[in-house]
Design brief:
Layout: E1 3-8, H1 20-23, H2 28-39, E2 45-50, H3 54-64, E3 70-74, H4 83-92, E4 96-100, E5 122-125, H5 130-146
Parallel strand pairs: 1-2, 1-3, 3-4, 4-5
The chain binds ligand CA2.
Ligand CA2 binds at residues 11-12, 14-15, 17-19, 23, 74, 76-77, 79, 100-102, 104, 111.
Protein backbone atom coordinates (compact mmCIF):
# COMPACT_ATOMS: atom_id res chain seq x y z
CA UNK A 1 0.00 0.00 0.00
CA UNK A 2 1.36 3.42 -0.94
CA UNK A 3 1.91 5.55 2.13
CA UNK A 4 2.41 9.31 2.10
CA UNK A 5 3.37 11.66 4.92
CA UNK A 6 1.70 15.07 4.95
CA UNK A 7 4.10 17.28 6.86
CA UNK A 8 3.26 20.86 7.84
CA UNK A 9 5.56 23.29 9.55
CA UNK A 10 5.36 26.31 11.82
CA UNK A 11 2.17 28.31 12.27
CA UNK A 12 0.15 26.18 9.86
CA UNK A 13 -1.86 24.98 12.89
CA UNK A 14 -3.32 28.51 12.83
CA UNK A 15 -4.81 28.16 9.34
CA UNK A 16 -8.39 29.35 9.12
CA UNK A 17 -8.10 31.46 12.25
CA UNK A 18 -6.09 34.51 11.11
CA UNK A 19 -4.88 36.20 7.91
CA UNK A 20 -7.66 34.67 5.74
CA UNK A 21 -6.80 37.21 3.02
CA UNK A 22 -3.42 35.48 2.61
CA UNK A 23 -4.04 31.88 3.67
CA UNK A 24 -7.81 31.42 3.23
CA UNK A 25 -10.37 30.08 5.68
CA UNK A 26 -9.72 26.34 5.43
CA UNK A 27 -8.24 24.79 8.56
CA UNK A 28 -5.40 22.28 8.58
CA UNK A 29 -7.67 19.40 9.72
CA UNK A 30 -9.95 20.25 6.78
CA UNK A 31 -6.97 20.14 4.38
CA UNK A 32 -5.95 16.78 5.84
CA UNK A 33 -9.51 15.48 5.35
CA UNK A 34 -9.49 16.74 1.72
CA UNK A 35 -6.23 14.86 1.13
CA UNK A 36 -7.69 11.68 2.67
CA UNK A 37 -10.78 11.94 0.45
CA UNK A 38 -8.54 12.48 -2.61
CA UNK A 39 -6.08 9.64 -2.03
CA UNK A 40 -7.95 6.87 -0.20
CA UNK A 41 -9.86 5.88 -3.38
CA UNK A 42 -6.41 5.13 -4.84
CA UNK A 43 -5.81 2.75 -1.92
CA UNK A 44 -3.24 5.07 -0.34
CA UNK A 45 -2.62 5.56 3.36
CA UNK A 46 -1.92 9.11 4.59
CA UNK A 47 -0.23 10.13 7.82
CA UNK A 48 -0.28 13.77 8.96
CA UNK A 49 2.01 15.72 11.22
CA UNK A 50 2.27 19.43 11.99
CA UNK A 51 5.01 20.89 14.14
CA UNK A 52 6.27 24.33 15.03
CA UNK A 53 9.72 22.90 15.75
CA UNK A 54 12.45 22.41 13.16
CA UNK A 55 13.97 19.37 14.94
CA UNK A 56 10.60 17.60 15.09
CA UNK A 57 10.18 18.11 11.33
CA UNK A 58 13.70 16.77 10.72
CA UNK A 59 13.01 13.73 12.92
CA UNK A 60 9.77 13.11 11.03
CA UNK A 61 11.69 13.17 7.72
CA UNK A 62 14.25 10.69 9.09
CA UNK A 63 11.53 8.44 10.50
CA UNK A 64 9.70 8.43 7.15
CA UNK A 65 12.45 6.29 5.65
CA UNK A 66 11.22 2.74 5.19
CA UNK A 67 7.72 3.74 6.35
CA UNK A 68 6.39 6.14 3.71
CA UNK A 69 6.83 6.24 -0.06
CA UNK A 70 6.66 10.00 -0.43
CA UNK A 71 6.20 13.25 1.45
CA UNK A 72 4.15 16.40 0.93
CA UNK A 73 5.83 19.24 2.77
CA UNK A 74 4.74 22.75 3.57
CA UNK A 75 7.70 23.83 5.68
CA UNK A 76 6.16 27.25 6.39
CA UNK A 77 8.76 29.87 7.28
CA UNK A 78 11.51 27.23 7.48
CA UNK A 79 11.24 26.98 3.69
CA UNK A 80 13.24 30.19 3.42
CA UNK A 81 15.82 29.53 6.12
CA UNK A 82 16.46 25.87 6.82
CA UNK A 83 19.50 24.23 5.27
CA UNK A 84 18.98 21.54 7.95
CA UNK A 85 15.56 20.60 6.52
CA UNK A 86 17.02 20.63 3.01
CA UNK A 87 19.79 18.26 4.16
CA UNK A 88 17.27 15.97 5.87
CA UNK A 89 15.27 15.67 2.64
CA UNK A 90 18.45 14.82 0.69
CA UNK A 91 19.48 12.26 3.30
CA UNK A 92 16.21 10.28 3.29
CA UNK A 93 16.04 10.00 -0.49
CA UNK A 94 12.22 9.98 -0.61
CA UNK A 95 10.33 12.08 -3.17
CA UNK A 96 9.15 15.33 -1.57
CA UNK A 97 6.62 17.68 -3.13
CA UNK A 98 6.83 21.21 -1.72
CA UNK A 99 3.51 23.00 -1.21
CA UNK A 100 2.64 26.59 -0.30
CA UNK A 101 -0.86 27.96 0.02
CA UNK A 102 0.23 31.42 -1.10
CA UNK A 103 2.25 32.31 -4.18
CA UNK A 104 5.62 32.79 -2.51
CA UNK A 105 7.04 34.20 -5.78
CA UNK A 106 4.58 37.11 -5.68
CA UNK A 107 5.35 38.03 -2.06
CA UNK A 108 8.30 39.57 -0.19
CA UNK A 109 11.76 38.86 -1.68
CA UNK A 110 12.74 36.76 1.37
CA UNK A 111 9.83 34.39 0.65
CA UNK A 112 10.95 33.88 -2.93
CA UNK A 113 13.96 31.86 -1.77
CA UNK A 114 13.23 28.20 -1.05
CA UNK A 115 15.90 25.81 0.15
CA UNK A 116 13.30 23.03 -0.09
CA UNK A 117 12.88 23.54 -3.85
CA UNK A 118 16.51 22.53 -4.40
CA UNK A 119 15.74 18.97 -3.26
CA UNK A 120 11.98 18.60 -3.91
CA UNK A 121 10.70 16.90 -7.07
CA UNK A 122 8.18 19.74 -7.55
CA UNK A 123 6.98 22.98 -6.01
CA UNK A 124 3.28 23.91 -5.99
CA UNK A 125 2.32 27.33 -4.70
CA UNK A 126 -0.49 29.84 -4.88
CA UNK A 127 -3.25 27.26 -5.29
CA UNK A 128 -4.54 27.36 -1.70
CA UNK A 129 -5.65 24.01 -0.24
CA UNK A 130 -6.06 22.58 -3.76
CA UNK A 131 -2.27 22.68 -3.96
CA UNK A 132 -2.10 19.77 -1.53
CA UNK A 133 -4.32 17.71 -3.86
CA UNK A 134 -2.12 18.67 -6.80
CA UNK A 135 0.85 17.49 -4.75
CA UNK A 136 -0.82 14.09 -4.30
CA UNK A 137 -1.43 13.96 -8.07
CA UNK A 138 2.24 14.83 -8.64
CA UNK A 139 3.39 12.00 -6.38
CA UNK A 140 1.02 9.60 -8.16
CA UNK A 141 2.51 10.49 -11.55
CA UNK A 142 6.00 10.15 -10.04
CA UNK A 143 5.28 6.67 -8.61
CA UNK A 144 3.71 5.53 -11.90
CA UNK A 145 6.82 6.66 -13.79
CA UNK A 146 9.02 4.80 -11.27
CA UNK A 147 6.95 1.58 -11.40
CA UNK A 148 5.04 1.38 -14.70
CA UNK A 149 2.56 -1.52 -14.57
O1 LIG B 1 2.03 30.00 1.72
C1 LIG B 1 2.42 29.13 2.51
O2 LIG B 1 1.87 28.02 2.61
C2 LIG B 1 3.60 29.42 3.45
O3 LIG B 1 4.40 28.24 3.54
C3 LIG B 1 2.99 29.76 4.78
C4 LIG B 1 4.02 30.21 5.83
C5 LIG B 1 4.92 31.29 5.26
O4 LIG B 1 5.95 31.58 6.19
C6 LIG B 1 5.54 30.89 3.95
O5 LIG B 1 6.31 31.96 3.47
C7 LIG B 1 4.47 30.54 2.93
C8 LIG B 1 3.35 30.78 7.07
C9 LIG B 1 2.22 30.03 7.61
C10 LIG B 1 1.52 30.91 8.58
O6 LIG B 1 0.20 30.47 8.67
C11 LIG B 1 -0.67 31.24 9.31
C12 LIG B 1 -1.96 30.89 9.19
C13 LIG B 1 -2.93 31.62 9.82
C14 LIG B 1 -2.59 32.72 10.57
C15 LIG B 1 -1.28 33.09 10.69
C16 LIG B 1 -0.31 32.34 10.06
Amino acid sequence: MTSVLLLNGPNLNLLGTRQPEVYGTTTLPQIEAMCEAHATPWGWRLASLQSNHEGVLIDALHDAQGVHDGIILNAGGYTHTSIALMDAISSVGLPVVEVHLSDIHAREPFRQISYISRVAIAQICGQGPQGYLQALDTLRVHFKAEHPS
